[in-house]
Amino acid sequence: MKTFAVWRDKYAVLPFLVILLLWQLPALAQTDTTGTLVGRVTTEDDNLPFEGAIVQLEELGRKATSASDGRYRFNNVPSGTYTLTIDYFGAAPKQLSVTIMGDEQVVRDITLQADWLELEEVMIIGNRAGLMSARNKERIADELKTVVASDAIGQFPDQNIAESLQRLPGVNIERDAGEGRFATVRGLRAEFTNVEIDGVKVGGGEGGDTDAGGTSRSVRLDTISSDILESLEVTKTPTPEMEGDAVGATISLKTLSAFDRGGRSFRFRLEASEQSILKENNIKGTATYTDIFEIGGGELGLAVSATTQDRDIGRTQFNTSPEDVFTGAALDDAGNVVVPEPGDAVFLIPDRLEDVFRTNLRERQAVTFNLDFRPNDNSEYYLRITDAETEQETVRWRNRYDLGGRIGDEGLLTDTDEVLAVGRFTGTLDDADIRKDIRFTSNTETTEVFSIGGVNRIDNWTVDYRAGLSKTRDGDDKFAFRPRWRARDIIVGYQGGTSGGRITEVTPVAGEDDPFDPGDYSLQAFTVTKDVNEDEILSFQFNLEREFADGNALKFGLKTTFRDRTRTNIEENIVDEVENSGIIGDNLGDLADLGVDLVNIGDFSGSPAGLGFMPNINQLNSLFERNRTFLEQTALANESLTNNFDMSEDVNALYLQGTYNFSDTLRFVGGLRVEQTDFDSGAGLFNELIDAQDMSGVPDLVDTSLEVAVDGRKTDYTDVLPRLMLRWEPSDQLIMRFALTSAVQRPDFDDVAPGGNISTDENELDSEPDVGDGTFSRTLSAPGNAELDPARSNQLDIYLTWYPNEDTVLQAGYFRKEIDDFFVKTDLFGEDVRIAGFEFNENNTIDGGFNAATDVSLNAGDAEISGLELSYSQTFSNGFFVSGAWTTVDSEADYGDLRPGRKLPLVGQADNVGNLSVGWENDNMSVRMSASYQDDVFFRVAGASTPELDTSLREATYMDLGIRYNINDNFTVYTDIININEEERIRFFPGLAQPWFEQVEDFGRTVQIGVTGSF
């Protein structure tokens, strides 16, 4: 049932805006002379700014809030003497008198003091101060906002922004190699959340769906260190002036300004760490400097931050694959394997298992450079530069076991000869293949953000403007090479289940390949790859605000955004050319004659004993480097441009926003945002590879490649987005917020890229493998769907915040979102390909339709998501403190023909997400134990005929411990243990008759020690 029936008429908000404008007409006509009151709220001893302090003119009932530099401002103040009250949560209120005469501008600075402010010599403040700073920013906001202040960031062992966000209500994160990478807000995946740095939109660097759950619109949050930020904010109810594409939330990252520190300051961090799997020493260093200079009667603020980190990570994986099938086998009363009949109870045999060990060697550097010039109290100009880079070398060693049970159309066993034994979670097969491959990639991820702008205040008018540019790149530095070798017809035993598995037996068969002899692993493939994804966003915006009496205001703004998204992808198998050249020989054993030793990785990778031998990666790379020119030129000669694209997306936006104070306790903020989008997908290619078996009678079709050009799509559409919210403060201890908002989510770039890959393979004879039977299976991979429509959402939020005393905050909120035309990516098999509009290859011909379509993106139906958010934080007089949050989410999504007549959760949703932090501190020391919990996450929806292959991410709890000791006012030493309980990341198939894992990843724990200084 749709809750927002009236709200869906986008113009229903217009009468509210007309009434709001009429309310302001008397104020527009006012002619009385009024003055201006400005000032700063700072600490009593050190002149450090307070952000979020509420400053009130008692006689007028008007309120202002202090900005990050402590400044506050009142326009339109009639002549007279007033009582000025300053309220900052966690500090004692303060009152003073101020007199305004005529049209003068009066400057009144205010100092505050609190018992918990231990700020002599500008030392880093503790847990309580960080909580107070964030709570005050949240308290004064009109919209629903959650804040993490820089001082609170430093109290957790978080490595990056994503890990800092996991401490907030309704947020859980996706991890890569144990590090946080993407943020999911209220059950909506990362692509539904807008990310900004200093007000500039940041693009997504990744290409397509990733193992960590990201897409090409998902912004990676592991590239930028949290050490160089002043604060980060998550806004869940967007105002009209905010971007339209914020169905999930807007994450705002704010870098440091010199005015945030009040003058000259210097801070640093030195850290060493070690991960339990790879056991390498890692080093991290961070430094921040600020200063303010007097120039021509004004002030110039300089803030510079820099960080560098080396982090080496090892991880083990044991995998099946989401596109793999399972064979159903049965046992008779005597325990013999038999061919089952449809409807029989069966045991499942995975088609493929993988034993993987990866190393990720990551070097991160980031720098921010900010200039702020304030010639007077009414004007300010700024330049902000953020440049972050991650250089990563990744090595993957993999043993892949192709178990190869024969299956028919019903997914049931057709040939018992190959299955020696089977049980609920065990099995042994005697016709398995073992593939060994090694992949080395070297890539660089960069995020560059530039902004220049200013703010001018003229009487009751405020104008601000900004030009911004963000560039993100995720690309290989050079071509990567992946050789693969195969041994055939081997007996393999396995053990599986929901929590992982292992290979229990590897036995050679007489007269067949010996899995323990490298010479029996023949070269099967040699793949050359290079992938570069770039996202560039250029924007210009202008805002004009008129403030009226009683703090009311009207605001108007324009923004133009030009976005260019490109991908250059090369993936070519040149095994024939490599075999003919003799570069790496015909089998794995030949490498010894080429100066490449085989090493045993079993001791540290978990590979089965005796099968851990793999090429020495350094020696193998040297061999490739000596032959790089030949390998690259060969790949380029065969290059397909299928996966390349160059897209543009231009958005023109305007908005009208009004603020009206019904009283000093009830405020309305609302208006309308209109966004017009022009999108051009560019042209593309379909690439078809035809592979006929030997002796099939069609030798001319062996390794044939065809390319067909396809047109792109140009489209434009307009979204009208009403947004209304009320903030009611019935008492000093209670705040209620109500919001009705709307947002849009544009399709993922990779999902609409024209083109795709077609693989046409001749089927083998059951009686003679490698001999064709004259029929063909055709698979369409990653076909772009240029007809995807944007998803649109209408949203309700009701939130209650209670401050029973200056040490405690409790919050409870309800939210609901109704999303039309949400996106789903899936794999389709058999007749299911018709769901995506493709023809089914019913007769298995070489030029028919398709037998399968993988990575297909579709507009599904409607989805509804609702939930309850609870949070609590409290500090006690004895030094103990506690904070936590719990979010319960429920969603129902109509996946159309993928699940006719059924409702499923939204992909990416966990029913419950929570975090808890408990600790103690005094003037010299603090101890904190923190935990983040996520329930099972619905990770991927499978095709209509294979609902049992839907995948979920298993529930997990990640626990961290942090201890800090203040040596003196300037220096603090600390130690952290990350993932102290060594939680694993497990994906599984919950719908199978016997639940089975898809991937089990272990990344161990990390211990780090360090020292911080502040001057």
TrEMBL record:
What does the entry list under GO cellular component?
cell outer membrane
Q: Where is the composition biased (Acidic residues)?
A: 761-771
Identify the domain of life: Bacteria
Q: Which residues form the TonB-dependent receptor plug domain?
A: 146-249
Signal peptide coordinates: 1-29
* SUPFAM superfamilies for the chain: Porins (SSF56935), Starch-binding domain-like (SSF49452)
Which residue stretches belong to region Disordered? 754-774
Annotated membrane-spanning segments are: none
Q: What PROSITE patterns does the database record attribute to this sequence?
A: TONB_DEPENDENT_REC_3
Pinpoint the TonB-dependent receptor-like beta-barrel domain residues: 509-980
List the molecular function annotations (GO) for this entry.
carbohydrate binding
List keywords of the entry alphabetically: Cell outer membrane, Membrane, Receptor, Signal, TonB box, Transmembrane, Transmembrane beta strand, Transport
How does this chain sit within the bilayer? Multi-pass membrane protein
Q: Which InterPro entries match?
A: Beta-barrel_TonB, Beta-barrel_TonB_sf, Carb-bd-like_fold, Plug_dom, Plug_dom_sf, TonB-dep_rcpt-like, TonB_rcpt_bac
Q: Which family does it belong to?
A: Belongs to the TonB-dependent receptor family.
Protein name, as recorded? TonB-dependent receptor
Species the sequence originates in: Exilibacterium tricleocarpae
